Amino acid sequence: MTSGRGQLTPRMALVFFVVCLAVLMTWDLVARVNGLFWIRLVLWFVVGFAIGSACHELGHLLCAAIGSIPTRLIVVGHGPLLWRRRFGETWLEVRLLPFSGRVAHYPVVNPRWYGLALSRFGGVLGNVAVICLVAALDAVGAAPRKAGEVLGPIVFAQLCIIVITLVPIWVKSGGTRTPTDGLLLLQMLWQSRDYAAQARAAYATLLSGYSNGSLQPTMTLASSRVLYHVSRMDRTMDEEARHDFREALLRELKGGDLVPEERMLVLDALVTDGLISGDPTVRASLDEWSLQALELGPKLPTLLGSRGAVLVELGRYEAGKALLAPLVAAEQSDSFDPLMSQAFLARAERALGDEEAARRLANAARTAAESIQVTPRVRALLARLETEMQPVKLR
User: What's the rounded Cα separation, in Å, for the pair 59 and 124?
Assistant: First the structure.
């Protein structure tokens, strides 16, 4: 039984954990009774590897927090999803096979070499912490006399993980090639300055449409998260990803850490996503989001276009046409904003009875889409528009 979002319910996760523990103890008992020492070694080595994988990723998370590296995702294991939960702005996922993992960060705002190094070396420190804990238990006499049969393989598993992750190579994980921590450490230390400059330049480009002059944004942790979420909006997202995208941006709005240009960007991203996806669950919010954005920038063409598109989407065709027609007449470039204005103005003209103007605008939108290579989601929007443009067949 799952929760409906690809993960086990808490009750089923608990049952799964209990079953795994029972199987582990049963196999250990059978091996011990029959004197199969090597089976016990293998068994506890596997357990140690699972423990080491979890502590490795948690070490990354803790050290990234210490080094001010914003973390968006931590995954323990691979394969089918067992459990998923958000802590702050970081998602934690636990998967079926606990023998690997990964940590993904938001765009780094102001990286320092020691912060990057600490975040990448944090996984090894997590495994070292397990070794130190085992050594401490043995030193104080808290471990039973024969605990070495269990603790020895666990410690050996930590050493194996440390060696594997520090070698700077590419490895295959889940069918894809991924760099080890050692290779990532070298790459991030080498490219940290360029990466930060690229992130700031990308963010300045995103905000340029919401400012009346040149803008040199001072990126914060909130800016880093906004940059990540808005940058991935154009990618094909399933229903769960779109839900996470909207919820994340709404949390940023409620947080109050955004400057006016950032608030306009976030609100416009929510509006644009709702218009492109045609999701009926957000239809009621489009009016509110577009009005809030327009209050912050009442003369900005991109917000006027979004507002006009929302009015058309809500069936207020005359008001939508009044906003979109001047924009379409003024915008001559082949870019995303003119494309959206043409598409929704075509819908308005079609609803108002001007078939010729609607067809001309729809063709212009399709031509613009071909020249700027739009995403599959925008192509789907244009396909819906093309369907609407078909003449009604009379019986």
Answer: 7
In terms of Cα–Cα distance, which of 286, 340, 337 is closest to 315?
Answer: 286
- Alpha-carbon gap, residue 18 to 25, rounded angstroms: 11
Tens of pLDDT, residues 187-233: 776 665 566 777 778 888 888 888 766 566 677 888 889 989 988 87
Task: Quote the pLDDT of residue 160.
Answer: 93
* Listed residue (377, 301, 310) closest to 332, CA to CA: 301
Domains of the chain: 10-191 (no CATH), 215-389 (1.25.40.10)
DSSP 8: B
Q: Read off the pLDDT of residues 274-295 as tens digits, 9 standing for 90 and up.
A: 998 888 888 889 999 999 999 9
Q: Determine contact, residues 334/371, Cβ cutoff 8 Å.
A: yes
In whole angstroms, what is the distance from residue 371 CA to residue 229 CA?
Answer: 25
Q: Are 178 and 102 in contact (CB under 8 A)?
A: yes
Angstrom distance (rounded) from CA 334 to CA 71:
36
Distance CA 74, CA 165 (A): 16
In percent, the amount of the chain with pLDDT more than 90 equals 31
Q: How far apart are the first and last CA of the chain?
A: 49
Q: Are the beta carbons of 325 and 354 closer than 8 angstroms?
A: no
What pTM does this model have?
0.82
- What tokens appear for 126 in the block? 């997590």
